[in-house]
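User: Structure tokens for both sequences below?

Assistant:
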Amino acid sequence: MNSRGFSRNTLIGLLLTGLSSLVILQMVHIQNSSQHQELSRWADEEFSFAIENYYPERGNIYDRWGRLLAGSEDVYEVGVMLQYVANPVSIASTLQGVNDMEYENILAVAGKEYDPKKSIYAVITDFLPSGVIDVLSEIKQDYEIENPYGRNEKKPSLRGLIWIPHLKRSYPENTLASNVLGFYSFRDRQEGIGYYGVEEYYDNILAGTPMETYMPRNPYLLEGLPEVPAGASLVLTIDREIQAMVEKKLDEAVEEHEAESATAIVMDPRNGEILAMATMPRINLNEYWKTQSQFKDNTPYNRAISETYEPGSVYKVLTMAAAFDSGTVDEETKYYDSGRFEYGGSVILNWNRRGNGEQTMQGCMQKSLNVCLAWVATELGKEDFYNYMQAFGIGKLTNIDLGGEEIWPLSIPGDSDWYPIQLATNSFGQGVAVTPVQLATAISAVANDGKMMKPHVLKAIIQNGQQYTTAPQVLSVPIKPETARKMTQMLVKSLKNESSAALVEGISVAGKTGTAEIPVDGVYGTEETNASFVGWGPAENPQFLVYVWIERPKSSPWGSIVAAPLFRDIVQELVHYLNIPDETVQWQLMAKEGLE
């Protein structure tokens, strides 16, 4: 009995030992198999680690002297860890009014029921500055001292209220150069992008490259956050002081002349750098979400690059330059102005509906005679005229490095919408549409010995501690250097002879006024006009070109009365910012040295 019982127990023990050995052997086999290793790696990846995207800090934007125009600042998201909230009423009372929040809305969030599967954390508000967080931190600490762990429900407590720091796009100058900078939609923290201007055009460069990395789910295994290289920073050609001055002058001109809007461009014709570009309306970029309410009725974000219009007589600079360059006319060419010119079945009249008798080309430009310029264009011929206009970039994008540039196609012979009369009307800026930057760029060739430089706002890129300076680009050489110099001298003389309001004491400037009638119900008249002026200087060695356009002024329709003084006011201050010496003083010094 005992022997049989022992044998049975022994057998069972041996069987169990054998089975255990087989299990152990199989476990060892599994652990060392390739399938196990693959499964183990999958489990680690799936449950021990998570794939996280880390976005770099967006690059800064500076003016040409290193003054910050766009950067990043620390702000905070404020929320509640629902498991630890002790007194939702205290949280709602404390945060009431912050970011314009209402008590009931805060209480609804802070009072949510904790659910470990569905409801752990809830956001109350975002983008709070550090100053507000400092105050909240002090209040929370005081409450905690008076009511540890929020155990006393009758006493206030901010237990469960937390704040998480992150970066926000910041524009320290608020509205300054807003039409040039554009904005970054920072309120969309996951899908934010750049809109308009520099922020749109250079969005990818500023944004940098996000980094995807495996992060341990166990916080004790976290050795540190990955370092993500910041996006590139940009140095613009814009001068903050010149930009601010031009914006101020525009605002004063619009108020004085009761105009709809005004636009101005200040550029260096030698290299195409934009020193200032101002228009309206302007917005506080830190409140970019208000854009739609301020840009109504399809108003473009930046009129300087996006709004096309008939420029009027400033366009005559291109027509006369083409005629001089081709040899069609010269300084001795004369034309008898009867006050009307018939062409293509229509009659061209001067702006004052009068004739002026015999005129040289100097007189035609000085008196801004439509009739004479129409004759000049017909003498030049349609083929050459439009070849020159295309060489000046009319009808083409300038490809300025700003988001949102628009154009109006140039109708040329052979197009279904071109008629012979357009050769005559186009000569004085009617029936042809341009943007301010397009025309300023075209005329800059006259100020730069015939070379038309690509307009641009980027001066340098800063990346990985290195600065890379951009190189100027030649867009076209539409006219010869001698033609450019002849046109400049002609326009210097025109301003002086007319005692123009555009004249600037101490510096010689060349320039041309423009008054473009805006058709009302298809009929041109002076009830509504685009008043403009383009000028450059110093005449012997131009270092700046300024184009101003005032839209629908009510005080006077004429560019000579409205736009020319604005040009003068801008240039009077501009020469000081650019350290351009007073020519009168220079001549006096030279004369004194000659006497000695």
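Moving on to the next sequence.
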Amino acid sequence: MPDITNDNVSLYVEVDGDGPPVTVFAHGLTNSRNELAPFTPALAGTKVRFDFRGHGRSSVPESGYRFADFARDLDAVATRYGATRAVGTSLGAGAITHLIAERPDRFERIVFLLPAALDVPLADHRDFDRTADLFETMDKDRAIEAIMSSAGRAATYERAPFLRAFDLMLWQDMNPVGVSRAIREVVRDVAIGDRELLRRVTAPTMVICREGDSVHPAELGSVLADLMPNAELIVLPGEEELIASIPMLVGRVKAFLEDGSA
């Protein structure tokens, strides 16, 4: 697919399917368009996945990695393909939030998967900074191995070995230079200036969260569901349950996005 240029940044795009509805998928920090690929085969219509600036196969500017910048990337791709629906996880959810705070009617349906940002800066970004340090001082493979060998991840992989393969899949297209630059800026930013702006967003919205996630707290999902008048909240007990529930979530997201598309 042809790249899209936004702010002199080339954004890599992949498109599956055809016809309405058109759904744009926005991935999380450090990941790529592949992160949300499990959702696309089952969905009707046109599915548009892209890499944010500094991620995957998109270009890597020296600076410009705040939520406003990522929101412009999202809007450029959505506008080019006429997307009326948006699915975003983590960073991608924050980009959607920034965009709809400015333009409440931008999308007809919205899905937030593990939202991470609102109007309060991240309290502790030391883990993110350590990740950026590794990518700035090691080659990609050694940096990824160091991250995956950390105490917290090692314990998780011991409980659920399949999560290691899942994480490796997410990082196969990772751009270490761009990711480190993105981390340095966006983790110190807020998605929007005032959460009350989201009360104007009347589009049906699905919010999916899990317990026990300090980066994507379930409490944030509850806040979004309370603010947005047509929001539905799904909360899962933990990471393993979230991964195991992907088939169920794909079905729920499919029904939600396709509702009213005829």
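User: Anything stand out in the second?

Assistant: DSSP finds ten helices and nine strands in the chain.
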